[in-house]
Amino acid sequence: MACSFRYHKLGTGFNPNTLDKQKERQKGLPKQVFEADEMPDSSSYQDDQDDLKRRSMSIDDTPRGSWACSIFDLKNSLPDALLPHLLDRAPNEEIDRHNEDQRKANRHRELFALHPALDEEEPVERHCVPEVPKEHFGQRLLVKCLSLKFEIEIEPIFASLALYDVKEKKKISENFFFDLNSEQTKAMLRPHIQTAAISTLARSAIFSITYPSQDVFLVIKLEKVLQQGDIGECAEPYMVFKESDAAKNKEKLEKLRGQSEQFCQRLGRYRMPFAWTAIHLMNIVNSAGSLERDTELEMSLSERKGSWSERRNSSIMGRRSLERTTSGDESCSLTGFRPATLTITNFFKQEGDRLSDEDLYKFLADMRRPSSVLRRLRPITAQLKLDISPAPENPHYCLTPDLLQVKPYPDSRVRPTREILEFPARDVYVPNTIYRNLLYVNPQSLNFANRQGSARNITVKVQFMNGEDPSNAMPVIFGKSSCADFYKEAYTAVVYHNRSPDFHDEIKIKLPASLSDHHHILFTFYHVSCQQKQNTPLETPVGYTWIPMLQNGRLRTGHFCLPVSLEKPPQSYSVLSPDVPLPGMKWVDNHRGVFNVEVVAVSTIHTQDQYLDKFFALVHALDEHMFPVRIGDMRIMENNLETELKSSIAALNSSQLEPIVRFLHLLLDKLVLLVVRPPVIAGQIVNLGQACFEVMASIVNRLHKYLDTNQDMHGRNSLLSSYIHYVFRLPSTDPNSPSPDTNSSLTGPGGLGGSVHYATMARSAVRPASLNLNRSRSLSNSNPDISGTPTSPDDEVRSIIGSKGLDRSNSWVNTMGSKSAPWGSSPGSAPETMQAMERCGNRMSSHTESASFLQTLTGRLPTKKLFHEELALQWVVSSGSVREGALQQAWFFFELMVKSIIHHLYFTDRLESPRKNRFPERFMDDITALVSTIAGDIVSRFQKDLELVERLNMSLAFFLNDLLSVMDRGFVFSLIRAYWKQVSTKLYALQNPTLESLRLDFLRIVCSHEHYVTLNLPCSLLTPPASPSPSVSSATSQSSGFSTHVQDQKIANMFELSVPFREQHYLAGLVLSELSVILDPDNEGMFGLHKKVVSVVHNLLSSHDSDPRYADPEVKARVAMLYLPLISIVMEALPQLHDFTESHNQWGRPGGPQGAAVGTSGEETEGEGNSMISQTVAMAIAGTSTASPMSRPSSFLLNSQASRQHGSFSAESSRSLLICLLWVLKNADELVLQKWFTDLSVSQLNRLLDLLYLCVSCFEYKGKKAFERMNSLTFKKSKDMKAKLEEAILGSIGARQEMVRRSRGQLERSPSGSAFGSQENLRWRKDMTHWRQNSEKMDKSHRSVRTRAELEHEALIDGNLATEANLIILDTLEIIVQTASVTESKESILGGVLKVLLHSMACNQSALYLQHCFATQRALVSKFPELLFEEETEQCADLCLRLLRSCSSSISTIRSHASASLYLLMRQNFEIGNNFARVKMQVTMSLSSLVGTSQNFNEEFLRRSLKTILTYAEEDLELRETTFPDQVQDLVFNLHMILSDTVKMKEHQEDPEMLIDLMYRIAKGYQTSPDLRLTWLQNMAGKHSERNNHAEAAQCLVHSAALVAEYLSMLEDRKYLPVGCVTFQNISSNVLEESAVSDDVVSPDEEGICSGKYFTEIGLVGLLEQAAASFSMAGMYEAVNEVYKVLIPIHEANRDAKKLATIHGKLQEAFGKIVHQSTGWERMFGTYFRVGFYGTKFGDLDEQEFVYKEPAITKLAEISHRLEGFYGERFGEDQVEVIKDSNPVDKCKLDPNKAFIQITYVEPYFDTYEMKDRITYFDKNYNLRRFVYCTPFTLDGRAHGDLHEQFKRKTILTTSHAFPYIKTRINIIHKEEIISTPIEVAIEDMQKKTQELAFATHQDPADAKMLQMVLQGSVGTTVNQGPLEVAQVFLSEIPSDPKLYRHHNKLRLCFKDFTKRCEDALRKNKSLIGPDQKEYQRELERNYHRLKEALQPLINRKIPQLYKPVLQVNSHRDSFSRMSLRKLDI
Q: Could you count the other beta carbons within 10 Å of the beta carbon of residue 276?
């Protein structure tokens, strides 16, 4: 009976948060506007930029500080809309009320609709409804035969198709007969053919292949009418003649046609084999795109068929119940290939002696070889066209193998498609669901070699007889093609002149439903005379044989080798077998077997299994009271029936599995029947309960063991679950009542003809013993109006099946039985009834058709047991292997029991009765005992056989869940408690996560009950619709529900897991206790279960949320009450939650506190959370106060490090837990919450605030861009790769085992600290994609990339979720504020509230939320002004920043609210103390910070907000008379000024140098306002870090520190603090510019000055630590030391040993690195270039020269390319030129319309005295102010000339500051040139050479290669302009000019040194070389000696004048350069 129920779909098990349902619930969501999404794309942004460039020129024209311009601009801009009543004075209560109404309007009701379901494998409590039992199909293939043409057309040709599996050597389908002859050819056979039935005209067939493989062939066989001559002769004309020659051979063809006509007339009823071919199926399927030529078969694929792609996807697999076992290898799937049209051109002629199947398999195997024998045969050319395609899901005009029509079948006259019966290659395990009774007779061979007489052309006539008279042949043989449907006889094909032919015919017979002993198959052998001779008959009988159909009541099938009789068999032969030697008969070959034949039955009536047969026969005998029974050779009398029955039940175990499965439904039904109605044998009631229970257990286990592929995730075998769900019925109650289903039942066994043999009737799966052909079992839509008693079973079958055809689509789900009509429709039915019905419709829903199933059974005494009671009893008393077997498959027995209970209650109309009296005590005791022992099993065995225990645990849970619907609730709760106790006791002794996990599953399943909420007694006042039954109170002994008013109870009880709470709300109490136990941080082992337990809660709440019964807010509030303790549980767990704020620490976000320096601009880092500086570093840098915009010590971030030693949750679990928390906060009663908050201590409230803070970060809107980015990422690594990989690694196993294995793995991990914690049972560390919609599980949708629309939708949902979550947080904050206003310590709490508010403003928020948020913030400030301006000053700064940021929003509503808030803030500050210096300063600083860091900041919008603020000030009547409006105006204009500067910055966004210059200028402009200068220095540091200029970033930080030090030393005199800038000189000489010496320096004592957080000792330390970190990153370890020199005294003074330890550690690292990298090559500091700009296009830059510092090893070409490219883009490529030389530029000679850039490589320049100090590589690269570059020239203007005319110009540049500085280019302020004469150039060259030699000689370790290179250059003879030439030019004669004497002498000494060095080098080289270089060394030495000889005279000549003290020499350290000519006038 089908029960359709109201609520069961609402239990969590049936209420999955599926995507479709989500979509449904998400309809009509408003689009939330987010600024993040409104931001322009870069392209459009660029256009705005260009606009701005044009617009900003006006600002350029007026100098900075031109008030006129600023005011003019502002006055002209438009304000945003003003908020009405903003300035009215209203009482706070009213404002609050108004805000609340606004907030509560139009809220989204269901929070969970916005939150994607948890990413779970498959929720435990979800029971999938089993598949409806249906006929089995493999993969289906549609073959259409289009045409068959031969070269000549002279006679009809008949074709058949069948599938063969070569490997299995098995024919795997029946034959499909078709003919494609033209009407004219068919006419030749007219005398032999009756009118053709439409079913035989089919030309398309659907083949089913359950086990596709590479070995399947489609074999096509052709036959023709029998004619004289063997096959070869008959085939000859087909091979010889060509169609093209038809005209030539006309006569011959006519003659052939004439002969054919004669043969057709005469022999038309006989056939002969003709030709065959085969197609390798998988080739077609695999290469349906590109068919290779298969051996000789030319298969050309002609046209493609229409759009099959859609149809292909509709899985044909749907029909297979053997989902996973089907295809042995993947490539063999037939479902998805493209339809192909084949043209087969070659056929092989049949060989008369090779017709058997054996031969065929040899041929097929051979065909697959490349060198096939078949290739050598001469083919018959023809053209057969076939279409092969996957079969469509519901093909039209389809006939089953039994010729029944399958719906849809619109018109009976259309040519049908035949379904071809499959003979599966291996067993298929599917229960019978349709009536089928077919027999296939395959004659195989005959041996008449020893028969006397003429018998050559032999045919076998086959008949199916039901008597011995010839007239008894039955018309049950199926016709072939173009003939009638059924015939009384069939002839096999004739092999010409062959006495022992092979046959290949298949004769298909429709077996009668009931067989008698007289039914048999008769074979008659004929000799056919082909030639027409006088008085020879056409056919002569030459033998007879037969097969009786029944033997001892069983169908005879199999291989037979029969003797053949020469004469007609005698009377009553049919009951005997031909093997029996009948008297007086003549046999061929002495009664030996000469005829081989195979008989195969495909029947759903005959089991063909002896054990089943015996069992069914005995049961039937009992039913019919027919004794004695004959079974096989035994006669069983009534007295030994009992033992036989018992042994037959036991023997069922020996039966084959395949028949057991086929007859499963019937078998189980009979067993149930024997249990319920014990048979009466010989007057004794025989109790078979135990035997049946045992055999059931063993059958169920066999199925489970061998068919483990079709199990669901709970390990339930689908065959069994569908039996329970659809088939199982209690045998009807009153044995004498007629069935309620009268219309289709036949009362009593009458009308069947007494002697009909029982086996047929009883065994039909289609009919119970009374032959009630119960409709539900046969084909649906059976005709319900059969009236009267049909005359024979066959008619009955026909009448039921026939009239309407078969409707497969819903063949089982049809009408409800008659009794069920009123159900569900009668509104009055009590909830109780509904309940049971519901259940029944739930997982156990019964069969969906007629009610009673096992009808009246005659002769039974009405002894009746209740099945569920018997079952429980048998189970409880069972022991040993039986009990084990039942435990293994406990689910089956539990579900049977439940279904039986429901049926029982329903049929006995007890659904109305009170639950207490429904069941006898005895049954309740059995159940209690059962549950208790099973719980015991779970506890004791979970470590040994986890898999079993997991299944058992779930089965038990489902069972209790079901019992909640039918038994007394209190009783069921006591069962749950018993289980709980056992598990808890064990857990207490043994902390084992596996057991805990089992208990969670159990709980989750029990709680998935649809009346879970009601079971928890949310309260007694309020009855949700249709409350289930009055027996509720039995759950708790005393009162039911809450006491009437909540207030009476101590409020805390509701919020804690107190005893009263747990008693009152039993199940909810269990859930929450589990949660708190598992989340308890001390509970180390339970780590892996976090996700699991959270998802239990998430699941429940999500289902309440969408439950229509609880839609009313009051009801929801009651439901939420069940979960109030959740709030405190989550508060406890706070330290373990995933820290979502990490991605928000100040570096990651554009709007960090004030300076938010160093870091990328939030946009990139946001989603990825990889902010540049990690949380810990940031905290270290910042001391403790800067890690987040909150500096209260209770802050979540701060204690986060401390309390994180326990593993933390994954992001996903934390998010789920938080959404549950928000749900409770949203739906709970506000008054209740407020009362509870009042009771909380301050620290608890602060903890709650920290929790809300975390929620804000957790549900922040990601932004569309993030979704798109995610999308592109998923595209790259589609998730299903992971799935496949996993599958490959683990081998594909059932989902269930996989789950088991996973949970096992998850639980056995060692809890080793955090690494473990973060894992939390995620198989692959999922990249926090918590917004992944559940169904988007990437593997399911093979297109893991989502479409535009889906992305839009996701963003929409995420936006709404973010808005709703934040509004809930806002509501809660409001409640906290109300509570806090009455408590003593409100400050810290209000500070916390403000902190959360500010944090929420900092996140991406929707316009909707922000306006409520600003309203709350205004109310808060107006209620507690002193809070902001006195205590929480940090927060005040933060608030200003947030408000300003929102003032520049692109969304006008946000702007108008933000400006209103900002204005009120100033106003309130003013009202407190008549000025608003604080807000003024904070706002100015915030603006600077905003402008400096924000990438996409739009000054246009901010200008509007400023105008709005001005407008408020002008309209503010109250303060009109005060100074307030003027102060506001001042402030606004100042802000506007800053704004204008930033416009310029925008312009140079792309030019890093220019941008930094501009920031530098702005910072300089703030020289007098330290806070702002600091802000800008920080901004610069940030920009540098972004570009990896760490040295510059470090300098900015050092400057910041110096600035802070300057002001700190003014504020307080502490010895250990730096005195001011001076202290920092060692770090950089530039620092002095920070000294506060100018006149207009503000005193730091002034209100609002230096109040930023950096102007403190901690701030200073933070800056210095950051500087040290940056220096370290820049590789400047020496500077790190200098920075720490300033830091160490501070820490020493504070006795901070920990910090000192860290510092010294870092110092050790730094010095270590210096040691390792001493040569300097390892750390390259920078390359310097002089860059000059010439041309008016450059504006400010024209004629400016800079030194640029570029990254190390930058080539000249690189910087040249960069600058040329950059300016080229700006001015046009043809407008920019790079000047290639480094000569002075003459501006007059340049083209005035172009821009010229001159770039020269320069090197640092040090005077000789400086070199004394600059020793190391670092010294030579730090604090650089002078650079040099050299230009060679000759006097006549060429660059290079001979030695004696080569001059050199050295240009020395001095910059305004030393490198590294806070920018990367510095202006050149001084330039001097030194010109060297040729001899000076020579001296320098020689000195350089000598140095090189010295270096190479003394290098350690020695480097022979380098040494030889230098030597070769020095002593090699061929060196052009080498040393010798230099000596000869300059030393050969004494110079005439006395001024040059010194030079001459110096050069001479250089040469002396040079020769000495050469000698050293040669000596060194000698020691280094091996024997192979001896010759080379000699050569070098020879050269050296030559050189030395040549130089000797030149070196020894001294200038005598020099050795007399003639000239008084000024001893000057720079004398050398003084002597040279300073400037040479040419």
A: 22
DSSP string, 35-74: HHHHSPPHHHHHHHHHHHHHHTHHHHHSPTT-HHHHHHHH
Which residue is associated with the tokens 């998935």? 1008
* Residue linked to tokens 């350290």: 2013
Q: Concatenate the DSSP letters of all residues of 1141-1202 into one string.
A: GGGGSGGG-TT-STT--SS--TTTHHHHT--SS-HHHHHHHTTTTTSSS---TT-HHHHHHH
Whether 348 and 277 have beta carbons less than 8 Å apart is answered as yes
Mean per-residue pLDDT over the chain, rounded: 76
Q: What confidence score (pLDDT) does residue 1855 get? A: 94
CA pair distance 1359, 1262, nearest whole angstrom: 8
pLDDT at position 667: 92
Residues 1490 and 1484: their CA atoms lie apart, in Å, by 10
Three-point CA angle 1169, 1171, 1173, nearest 5°: 140
Buried b (16+ CB within 10 A) or exposed e, 896-927: bbbbbbbbbbbbeebbeeebeebbeeebbebb
**Where do we find the tokens 């919020």?**
1055
Peptide bond into 628 cis (omega under 30): yes
pLDDT at position 319 is 34
If you ran DSSP here, which 8-state letter would residue 297 be given? B
Tell me the C-alpha to C-alpha distance, in Å, between residue 1039 and each of 1031, 1070, 1923: 12, 20, 116
| Residue 1286 pLDDT greater than 90, yes or no | no
The yes-or-no verdict on residue 1859 having pLDDT over 60 is: yes
Rounded to the nearest 10°, the torsion over CA 7, 13, 16, 21 is -20
Phi and psi at residue 1322, to the nearest 5°? -85, 130
Which tops the pLDDT comparison, 1350 or 294? 1350
Alpha helix ranges (H) inside 1263-1347: 1264-1276, 1279-1290, 1295-1308, 1313-1319
The model's pLDDT over 247-303, given as tens digits with 9 standing for 90+, comes to: 888 888 889 999 999 899 889 899 999 999 999 988 887 765 444 333 333 443 333
Summarised one tens digit per residue, pLDDT across range 1955-1998 is 888 888 888 888 888 888 888 888 888 888 888 888 888 888 77
**What is d(CA 1669, CA 1683) in angstroms, rounded to the nearest whole number?**
10
755 near 769, Cβ under 8 Å? no
* Token pair for 261: 């006509």
Residues contacting 1205, CB < 8 A, separation 6+: 1313, 1314
Kindly report, residue by residue over 667-710, the tens digit of the pLDDT. 999 999 898 888 887 777 888 888 999 999 999 999 888 887 77
Left, alpha or beta for 403 (phi > 0: left; psi -120 to 50: alpha)?
A: left
- With a pLDDT cut of 90, the percent of the chain lying above it is 22
Q: Which amino acid is at 7?
A: Y
Model confidence at 17, in pLDDT bands (50, 70, 90)? Answer: low
3-state secondary structure of 1798: strand
Residue 1178 contacts residue 1170 (beta carbons within 8 Å)? no
For 1943-2009, what is the HEC assignment?
Answer: HHHHHHHHHHHHHHHHHHHHHHHHHHCCHHHHHHHHHHHHHHHHHHHHHHHHHHCCCHHHHCCCCCC
